[in-house]
Design a protein that fits this description.
five-stranded mixed β-sheet, Nucleotidyltransferase, domain 5, disordered C terminus, about 20% strand, 5 strands
Length: about 170
């Protein structure tokens, strides 16, 4: 079963595609779609749309998962990232693929078994779960692979990953 995870951002959007079969993972593809600072914002969104559309067409995932946003300070960054996240959801919907959304805490729980794990713990477990020699780079691609692993481990049920009553 081909699954895709997306770590949205307007400067860098990470994507990770895995094949999950009988409890085993195989990497299909991963990487990032980058946009340049100073490029008109609508062109940055178009670049993300075109890139994700291309990955979805090539990989043909049966489901797509997108990380939900968590921002505590910078609302300007949050708004731009939310728009990039909308593009990611749109790409999956346009392809007729079910879209699932997971909080950072749910992703950490699914990948490490601990909802408050730090970034290094998550990346280490992504490497271990996928049987890689090194942590995938850049970080945004590793994060997207974590989202795909979360989708596989949740059985496409976001409620399966409720942590102590909180998502």
């Amino acid at each position: 079963m081909i699954l895709m995870g997306i770590d949205p951002g307007y400067a860098i959007t990470g994507y990770g595609v895995v094949d999950y079969n009988k409890g085993r993972f195989r990497i299909v593809d991963y990487g990032v779609i980058s946009t340049r600072a100073g490029t008109p914002f609508e062109q940055r969104l178009l670049t993300i749309f075109d890139g994700l559309t291309r990955v979805i067409e090539q990989a043909a995932p049966v489901s797509v998962a997108v990380e939900e946003l968590f921002f505590s300070r910078n609302t300007t960054t949050a708004i731009g990232t939310a728009q990039a996240r909308g593009i990611a959801v749109l790409c999956g919907a346009r392809a007729g693929i079910p879209i699932y959304e997971y909080t950072p805490r749910q992703i950490k729980l699914a990948v490490t078994g601990y909802g408050l794990a730090d970034k290094q713990q998550v990346q280490h477990m992504v490497r271990v779960i996928l049987g890689l020699k090194e942590i995938p780079k850049p970080d945004d691609a590793a994060d997207a692979l974590a989202v795909a692993i979360c989708l596989a481990h949740s059985g496409a049920d976001p409620n399966a990953l409720v942590v102590g009553g909180y998502q």
